[in-house]
Design goal:
The complex is a heterodimer of chains A (about 100) and B (about 170). By secondary structure, chain A is mainly alpha-helical. Chain A contains 3 helices and no strands. Chain A has one domain: Helix Hairpins. Classes of the chains: A mainly alpha (about 100), B mainly alpha (about 170).
Chain lengths: ~100, ~170
């Protein structure tokens, strides 16, 4: 059996990659994809810790995270489409009208 | 054997995720993310979680990524536009550098925190596998029934929201 720490390290690494994507990219679709990477890293942690505790709670919360991720992707992409219609651009720098 | 499979799947997941972030073309990013999700499904199988592995493939790689792919094709913006030179001169490279430093810092912090976990604190190896699909279903419809029902309301709200947001204004 692979030790728990390996799974935690892997998911920490994936979460950091997702964070880097959110910080570094200037394309709204790629930013949403990076958020999906982060959600998956958290899912991996839930399942791994649940497995090592001997309960199914980790898998159940992963189920709910997946549902919320699906809702998030649908609404987020709808917002991206609306923004693109408005400005013909996907760069976050194009949407600064509310910025003080 | 199990350890070998773990390292193979972990390497695929990490490399594919890195390429998702490094890729200029969102089309390739989506494809690579599907690869990464497939590797994660393999890891779930290693963790005795076949139900989660299958939902990962069906919901994530199947449904959510197809939605992304659909939007990428609909909007048809193959690559990122370069920064306007005024902003690029002012914050471009240093702004990028700040983001890179922040994410490396996060990774270092996570690694530091994990290195402090005592190896025996979770009592691994003794826990036996309990995750049959029947078990998950029983828990989901008894102990977590309320959350399950609320989820359906959430999906309904998301559906209405997506339709309203993406509708063309007349």
């Amino acid at each position: 059996m692979v030790p728990l720490n390996h799974f935690l390290l892997l998911s920490g690494l994936l979460f950091a990659i997702g964070t880097a994507g959110v910080f570094l990219r200037r394309n709204l679709i790629t930013v949403l994809l990076s958020i999906e990477i982060m959600l998956n890293a958290v899912n991996l942690t839930f399942v791994a810790v649940g497995r090592f505790h001997g309960t199914v709670d980790g898998q159940i919360i992963t189920f709910f995270v997946m549902t919320v991720a699906a809702a998030e992707a649908a609404v987020g992409l709808a917002i991206v489409i609306a923004l693109f219609r408005h400005r013909e651009s996907l760069s976050p720098d194009a949407f600064t009208s509310l910025k003080w | 054997m199990e350890t070998f499979a773990f390292y193979v799947f972990a390497a695929i997941a990490v490399i594919a995720s890195l390429l998702v972030v490094a890729q200029r073309n969102p089309m390739y990013s989506v494809m690579l993310l599907i690869t990464s999700f497939g590797a994660l499904a393999g890891l779930y199988v290693l963790l005795d979680a076949p139900f989660t592995a299958v939902t990962q493939i069906i919901i994530y790689a199947g449904a959510i990524m197809v939605l992304f792919l659909f939007v990428v094709m609909l909007l048809n913006v193959p690559r990122e536009e370069p920064l306007p030179s005024a902003i690029a001169g002012m914050l471009g490279p240093s702004g990028m550098r700040l983001g890179a430093v922040l994410s490396v810092l996060l990774a270092a912090e996570v690694l530091w925190a994990l290195s402090r976990i005592a190896p025996g604190s979770f009592a691994p190896e003794h826990a036996e596998s309990v995750s049959s699909v029947a078990n998950i279903g029983r828990m989901l419809f008894t102990q977590h029934a309320f959350a399950f029902e609320v989820t359906s309301v959430l999906i309904l709200v998301a559906m209405v929201g997506a339709v309203v947001l993406a509708r063309k204004e007349h």
